[in-house]
Amino acid sequence: MSPTTALVHRVRRGSLVLTLGFVVAAIGPSEAVGQVPAVKTDIQGLEAFQCSVLGVPDPASAEESAQAVQLGSTASQAVVLGDLARARELLARAVSLDPGSAGLAYQFGRVLEDLGETRDAVLQYCRALAFGAAGEEALDARSRVDAYANATRRRIASEAIQAFADGVAAAGLRRWGDALAAFEAAAAAHADFPEAHYNQGVALEALGRELEAAEAYRRYLDMGPDPADAIQVSERIGQLQVVPASSASAGSALALGMLLPGGGQFYTGRPLGGVALLALAGGAAAAGFLIEETDVRCLNAVEPGQACPPDQIIGRTTDRPYLTYGLAGAGALMLAGALE
User: Fold this and answer.
1) Helix, strand, or coil here: 192?
2) Suppose 180 and one of 97, 173, 203, 250 were both cysteines; which one would form an S-S bond, judging by CB atoms 3.0 to 4.6 Å apart?
3) Tens-digit pLDDT profile for residues 102-123
């Protein structure tokens, strides 16, 4: 019997997944550069630190109280021996056993302060005062809380605060030129004023001065020490540093578009369009490469829909029937994007 040719299967591996991946990347960025952030309206740290109002904890049992006292005594010995880390561990356990003990809270605060954990130490002094510390412990705890409040309170010149308020008011009316002038005056009147620099960035964005806005945001981050919105501001800086379309070279955009689908769009400050074009061109090329048709030559005839047994296969050829179309489509998209 002469060999019979049977079309066994067509493999379409990965083309759909790859194309979907490109499309997801294209629609991923959720915030357009044109959406100007809101200005900051509050100045952090102008109010002096104050102890929070604490509720009265449940009283410790007699056994827990005794254990806490023993741990406090052992911690005192550790302090004498210079083992502050051990003392910290013991006192943390002690105050968890007897959270209403003013004496243990004060003792814990002193150890934390010696370890350089000033903020946590002050919170323990506040607990000691709230739970009835008396005598020298109470006086010392109060003086340490007051010293911390005095050291951490920001003192900003009144003219800087007034200029900042004027800028916030102007921004609320979308008078961005006036807002920028006011925020610049606030920053000039007080050197360490990160909120004023941030708001300069917002006003500069609204005025279309993206690169200057990025510099203002960078100054805000540099003044730190660690703003809560550091990640978001860093991302904003990256968005603003894309080359503006008005200053881009048409020749460079065309050359980049011919080298990489969407390259011209990236260069001219249109990243979403660039990623979308890259997704479409990549999907077309991927489909051409990944869709295969395999012809198997079988020694004996096989029933329709059945595979040729492995021991009767005498030949196999693989073809990519859509390769030409896929590459042509990708090339057409690349050319269209470069000329756009």
Assistant:
1) coil
2) 203
3) 999 999 999 999 999 998 999 9
Contacts by residues 78-86 (CB-CB < 8 Å, ≥ 24 positions apart):
79/111, 79/114, 84/111, 84/114, 84/115, 85/115
CATH number at residue 183: 1.25.40.10
pLDDT tens track for 2-48: 343 333 433 343 333 333 343 333 334 334 455 889 999 888 767 66
Sheet holding 4-12: strands in order across? 4-12, 291-298, 313-319
125 neighbors 105 (Cβ within 8 angstroms): yes
SS (H, E, C) 40-86: CCCCCCCCCCCCCCCCCCCCCCHHHHHHHHHHHHHHHHHHHCCCHHH
Domain count, the chain: 3
Q: Which domain holds residue 124?
A: 62-152
Pair (186, 226) in one structural domain: yes
Q: Any idea how long the chain is?
A: 340
